Amino acid sequence: MAVQFFLLGLFRLGNSEWNGLFAVLQVLTAITFFGVGIPLALRFIRARLLWSLRRRLVLTYLLFGLTPVVLGVTLVGVFAYFAAGQFAIHLVDTRLLGVHDRLAGQNGNRFGRMLQAAGLQPGGVKGQDLVASLPDDNTGSSLDEVRTTLLHRQSRLFLDGVPVGFSQNSADASSVRTPLGLPPWAATLPDGRFAGLVLDGNDLYLVAINQEKMADNRILSLLTSVEVDERLMDLVAEGLGRAELFEELTSSKNRKRPPSVSGGTSPSPVNIADLQVRFLSTMAVTNWDTGELDSIPMWVDSRPSLLYRQLFGGSLSGAITSAYRIALGVLIVVFGLLEMLALYLAVRLGRTITGSVANLYEATQAIDRGDFSHRITVKGVDQLSELGRSFNAMTGSLQRLLVEQKEKERLQNELSIAQEVQANLFPHADCDLANLQLHGVCRPARSVSGDYYDFILFHSEANLTGKLRTETGVGIALGDISGKGISAALLMATLHSAVRAYRFASEEVLYAKDAVSGLTVSREEVGEDAGELFQSPGRIMSLLNRHLYRSTQPEKYATLFLAHYDAKSSWMTYSNAGQLPPLVLSRDGSIRRLDKGGTVVGLMDGMSYEEDGFQMQTGDIMVAYSDGVTEPENDFGDFGEDRLMEVVARYRDEPLHVISAQVMLALDAWIGADEQPDDITLVLARQV
Do residues 643 and 576 lie in contact, with contact meaning Cβ atoms separated by under 8 Å? Predict the structure, then answer.
C-alpha cells in the first residue's frame, strides 16, 4: 500500500490528463493504509517484535532516552524556525519603514523650503510659482540616501485636491507610475501629514503627503511617491534572500493567487544545517481609494546563515567568535556521546533484567513439564538474584507439597473407607415395631462422627416347622464419644461392637450345641436373641464401662443412653450414663426427662448404674439427642431444649422423618453461615 501510494504520487508529477484519477486512487490508498495497514503493522509489532521482554525494555529505554531529546530538539527547531521567520519579516518591514520614513522626511523638507521660497505668503502665490520654486534634493551624503535617490520617485502638488504642478525626480520619466490623483480622504489630513504603504488598485506605493492651509483657506498638498517595484524589493531583500509582497488585501475574497512584486534571490545553503526559512506574514497597507487600513500577505525566503549575519554583523569575525562556535560544537558532541553511553548502560542493565526473566521463564516451562528438580543458577546479590533463589525455594516447597499431597490423598482415601465403614454401622432403615415407630439420623461435623446410635430388634423363638419369629422388643442406644475425628470414630466402633455382642449372645450359645445345628440353622428365622439381658440396661452399662475402661486409654470415655422397649407391655426401661437426658413429649404436652443412671462409661472401673422405667402412652414421642443439637450458638445464645421441643411439638403428628427434617432446618437457620460445631445426632420413638 505504501509503495502504491508513492507511485501514484510520482504519476501525478507527470501533469497528465490522468492526474484526477491518480489523486482519487492515492486518497483511497491512504485511507486503506491507515485503516488496515497500520493496525496490521501494530499487531505484527506487538506479536513478534515486542513479545520479547528484552526488546520491550530496549524500546522503553529508547522512548525514555530519545523522546525528551526528540521533543526538545523539535520544540527548539520549531521555535527557531518561527524566530528566524519573524526576524526575516521584521527586517523586511524595518527596511520598508526606513524607506518611507526617509521619503516622508524629504517630502517635508521640500514642502517647507517651497513655502519659504514663496516668501511665506501662501495666499499670494500662484500654484505655478510654487511649482517653480520646488527645490531639488536628489543628492545625499549617506549610502541609504543615495540608494533612495535611485528609486522611481515622483512628486505632485495639489491645491484643494486638484493637481497644479508636477515635479519629476527620476531619470526615466516614462517608466514612473504614481497613484491616480489625491483621494478625498487625503485632501484634508487631520494633522497635515501622511506617510505609509498604499495600495492603488493592484499597485503598491510608498507615499508621503504634507499639507498647509493657505490664507484663502485653500489646502496646498505636496505628494511624493515611490513605486514598490523590483528595484525597491531588491534593496529591501539585499543580504536577506528573497522577499515578495502580494498586491491584494487579505480581506479580499478572491481565491486566485494575486499579483505580486518580489526582489532578491533565493539563497543557496552554506552547509547541510543551513535550512530554508520560508515564512508568511502580513504588512500594514492603506487602501488609496478609501483610506482604510488593511494588510497584504508577505513572503520571505531566507537562510539561517544570512539571518545570523544580519543579527550579529561584523561581530562574527575574530578568534573569540570561532572559539565560541568550536565550543558549541564540542558541547553537542559531548551530549551525543553521553546519550549513547546512557543508552548502552540501559541496554546492559536491561540484559541483566531480561536474563533473569528468561531464566524464570525456562524454569516455569520445566515446572510445567513436571520437572520439579529444576533449579535456577544464581550468581548475583541483587533483588533479581533473590527472586531466583525464591523461585528455587518455591520449587523445593512444591516438591514437598506434592509428597504431602500424596500422603494426604492416601489418608483421605483411608478416611473415605472409614466413613463408609462407619456408615454401615448405623441402621440402614427405620426399625419400626407394630406399636412403636423409630427414626434416627446422624450428621457428622467432619468426615467421620464420634456420635453413636443403634436400634437392636429382639425376636421370639421360632422352630423349623415354618413358624416365623416375631418382634418382642427393641433396644435403643445413643452415645457421644469424647473427642472428634478418627479416634472418636474408632471408639464409637468399639462401643457399637460391644453393644451388638450382647445381642448375639444367645445365638452363639444355640449354635454351639452341636456342629450340625450350627451349620444348618437359619440365623434370620431360628433362634432367640438375648432380650432378657437387654431388659436390664443398667447391667449392660456396667459391662460396657468395664470393657471400655480396660481396653482404651484413661482419657477416653463415652456418654451413653440405653433403653429396652417391650412390645407387649409398651414398657420402656432405660439407663443414662452421662448423656443429655432424652425427653418424652406426652399427648397432653407434659415432658418427662430420662435422667436416671450414672456417670460416663469407660472413665472409672467398677461403676454401677441405676435404671428406671415407664409405660409409653399412645402419641408419646421420645426425643433422644446429642449435644450437637442443643449447644450451637449465635448472637441470641444456645439453640436449647426449649426450641428443640417447640419444633417437635409443632410437627408431632407428622411422620418422624418429617419431624427430624424440620429440626435440622431449624438448626441450620440457627447456625447460619458458620461451620457446624459438633456432630448432630437425633433419635425419635413414637408410641402408636
Answer: no
Cβ(152)–Cβ(227) below 8 Å: yes
Q: What is the pTM of this model?
A: 0.47
Q: What angle do CA 536, 454, 431 make, to 5 degrees?
A: 100
Burial class (CB within 10 angstroms; exposed 0-12, middle 13-18, buried 19+) of 511: middle
pLDDT at 257: 66
Q: What is the mean pLDDT of the chain?
A: 80
pLDDT at residue 506 is higher than 70: no
Question: Taking every pair of C-alpha atoms in the chain, what is the biggest distance, in angstroms?
Answer: 181
CA angle 15, 20, 23 (to 5 degrees): 95
- DSSP conformational letter for 218: P
Which contiguous run of DSSP H or E holds residue 354? helix 319-368
Q: Running DSSP on this structure, what letter comes out for residue 617?
A: P
CB burial string 582-601: b at 16+ within 10 A, e below:
bbbbeeeeeeeebebbbebb
Distance CA 469, CA 527 (A): 8
CA distance 363 to 376: 7
* Confidence at residue 525, expressed as pLDDT on a 0 to 100 scale: 44
Q: Grid coordinates in use for 595?
A: 435422667
Strand extents, DSSP E, 343-486: 436-443, 451-459, 471-481
192 sits in the region (left: phi over 0; alpha: psi -120 to 50; else beta) called left
Q: Which of 234, 236, 225 is nearest to 107 (CA)?
A: 225
CA–centroid distance for 47 within its chain: 21
pLDDT of residue 623: 97
**Residue 171: exposure state from Cβ atoms within 10 A (0-12, 13-18, ≥19):** exposed
Mean pLDDT of 105-112: 86
Which region holds residue 485: left if phi is over 0, alpha if psi is between -120 and 50, else beta?
left
Q: How far is Cα 451 from Cα 496, in angstroms, rounded to an integer?
A: 11
Q: State the average pLDDT over residues 426-430.
A: 73
